[in-house]
Amino acid sequence: MPRSLKSMGMLFLFLGLQLGGGKATGTDQAPTLSPKKLPPPQASPVCQRDLARAIEPILAGRQPGNSQPKFAHARWGVLVQTLSGQTLYTRDAQRYFLPASTAKLLVTAAALQRLGPNFQFRTSVYQLSSRPTILRVIGRGDPSLTDPQLQRLAQQLQRRGIRQAQLIADDSYYRGPVIQPSWEVADIQSGDGSPVNSLILNQNSLDLKLWPQALGQPLRVEWLDPIAARGWGVKNSAQTVAAQAAEFIEVERALSTPVVTIAGQLRAGAAPETVQVPVFDPTQNFLQHFQRVLATHQISVQPALLSPAPRLKNPLEVAAVASAPLAQLLVETNQESNNLYAESLLKTLGTLHQEQGDTAELGLAVVNTTLTRLGVDPDGYVLADGSGLSRRNLVSPTALVQTLKAMARSSEFSTYKSSLPVAGISGTLENRFQDTPAEGILQAKTGSLSGVAALSGYLNSPNFRPLVFSIVVNQADLPGSTLRAAIDEIVLQLTRLRACE
Q1: Which end of the chain is more exposed for a tag (fewer CB within 10 A), N or C?
Q2: How much is the CA Rg of the chain, to the nearest whole Å?
Q3: Residue 76 belongs to what H/E stretch?
């Protein structure tokens, strides 16, 4: 989920560590005799005609004994409709708001329409000549590509009897910058803003594991990728503290050099924590990994180049791997709010465009054309990226609801809806709405930036018609937890809806 943390050329990534046990889940538990869990009290119904009176106090944030409403300075945009199009509540729904990750609803809808649920990313190795053997590996932006897929490529080459080759890594499938120019400095130095190139590997991020040691000792820092350790420096001042002390971790990565600074503290005996930083040079990172994998299969690579090779009309594909179908990739994109996946989908849409130019910009044009055909007003949004990380994105609640309704009418509705988090059960909604009437009947996309919270999706109201809604708050000087709690309360009012004819 996108977030925005400002710093002076460095990233401060704060990891909130859980105290006293793991996260709650929606899994079944064996019944116990004592203490007995009581069901939540039955909330009184909300008649359709009274929905505004139920929602307005939440938007104001009125508090007993406080004359200043909690959300006095915030901007709210809300639209609640039935799937058939009847408006039940609206508040500034035509106005622009920062959508945060709910922008992924637009991009994934367009991707599903244009690419189809069975689309797969393909990474290929072509043999350009046999004496000497020259291989060209072409990436096509597969965001799910990992080291095991490189192993499969190497195995295929080994079976063809290739033992020595010149390797060319062709990273030209996507054109334009690998970092979205409108992203904030803090975001491009965190795992949320990893570079998006044609040869993506391991989501273009590196994992560091931090281990507490004896009391007063520095945390032990372990690179989970041994290749990454060769090119990175680590400045570590993080300490192991007593069991009663607070826990926090701060990770800073410089903009111009691959140096990570780690500060903070973990309790003695606590579990290790893993943090991510984006790779410094994604193409070189891919090439180094592939060279190592080829070596383990007795294929020596001399030399390895990064520039595109001459294009041949009918090159021989000697190895290839394909991603999971798009229907599965959308689950990672929307349920886990994976920015890299969304940006890769946007650029892939751009490759469908006949013109030359920045692939991401062309992708935005394809999104616009596709959504317009679906009936989404093109004046209802202005996108700058595919993930919602950019603060130049502007989307109205109306445009989000139009997209959701259009997909509900499409043949791909089941795939699209299944990609969304389920309240209290999965993805970014796993720990929200548990033990409430919304659990299991709400599927919606979350969004979060500093000062921004959003939720848009579908609700199968138990005593009312199926609903589609978009709720977004901007310009709030309150914690994200406070904003999300207000949004959740609005959703709970929707679960109480009755026609009351």
Answers
A1: C
A2: 25
A3: strand 75-82
Assess whether 405 carries a catalytic annotation: no
For the cut 80, the answer to whether the pLDDT of residue 323 exceeds it is: yes
Category of 45 on φ-ψ map: left (φ > 0), alpha (ψ -120 to 50) or beta:
beta
CB atoms within 10 A of CB 307: 9
3-state secondary structure 274-294: EEEEECCCHHHHHHHHHHHHH
Q: Is 104 a catalytic residue?
A: yes
**Which of 4, 101, 124, 448 is flagged as catalytic?**
101
Query: Can you tell me the distance from the alpha carbon of 101 to that of 390, in angstroms, rounded to the nearest whole number?
Result: 10
> Which residues lie closer than 8 Å to 454 by C-beta, 6 or more apart?
97, 99, 100, 101, 102, 446, 447, 448, 470, 471, 472, 473, 487
By three-state DSSP, how is residue 168 classified? strand
What pLDDT digit, counting tens, does each position of 359-376 carry? Answer: 999 999 999 999 999 999
Length of the chain: 501
Structure tokens at 92: 């500034």
Query: Which amino acid, one-letter code, is at 498?
Result: R
Catalytic: 209? no
**Mean pLDDT across the chain, nearest whole number?**
88
- 469 SS3 class: strand
Q: What is the DSSP string of 84-119?
A: T--EEEEESTTS-B--GGGGHHHHHHHHHHHH-TT-
Q: Which of 337, 387, 450, 461 is catalytic?
A: 337
The three state secondary structure string of 121-165 is: CEEEEEEEEECCEEEEEECCCCCCCCHHHHHHHHHHHHHCCCCEE
Q: How far apart are CA 478 and CA 37, in angstroms?
A: 33
pTM for the model stands at 0.88
List, as own/partner pairs, every contact residues 370-379 make where C-beta atoms lie below 8 angstroms and the sequence separation is at least 24, other chains included.
370/109, 370/110, 370/113, 370/114, 371/106, 371/109, 371/110, 371/403, 371/406, 374/109, 374/113, 374/402, 374/403, 374/406, 374/407, 374/410, 375/402, 375/406, 376/106, 376/402, 376/403, 376/406, 377/402
